[in-house]
Amino acid sequence: MRCYSCSKLSLFILCEVCVKQLFPTEISTRTIGTLDVISFYKYTTLEFLLHTKHKPEGYRIYKALAKMTMKPFIEEFVEADDRLVYIVGVDEYVKSGYAHVALLTRAMKTKYSKPLHSALMAQNRVNYSGKDLQFRLANPRNFRYTGKQNIDVILVDDIITTGITLQEAQKVLMENGVNVLFALTLADVEEGGSIL
Ligand SMILES: [Zn+2]
Asked: Quick one: fold of 25-54+66-195?
């Protein structure tokens, strides 16, 4: 096959050279209310790859990105912190044959971290893209949580824009007795997050 990024022949959807170039070096954090959100990239760096979401090639792209980011992150995390932590993806709904957020959380399964797939589902999926904060606040996702209670959770999503969705997800989890440690996203749309 050809590398999706540079079109050179490659065994993988992203070739070794592109993976090296894309490898996240500047992890940034943003705090939304009481929630710390850690992101691996600025949105502009990954935009062309994230646009494959819901397309056939997106399945392999998201898997490759998860392997480069979520997987090493959680492996390091569980090494430093040996309690059992659960991984909850924001709205792992299937569209065009796969749930892109589930590809991220699936990569985070270790001996001490367990993904709870499809445990936090939106009941309202009105399109947010290009909409302002007021619109997003007026049209909440109305998440329903069906996972375990009294657990420690890392929340996972593909991007953070206003942070409203993650904040709403955090609130629903807290109402269900879940301790949200922090959130993890591939890319941050806002410029100027502080460097960790
Ligand atoms: Zn390449």
From this structure: Rossmann fold (3.40.50)
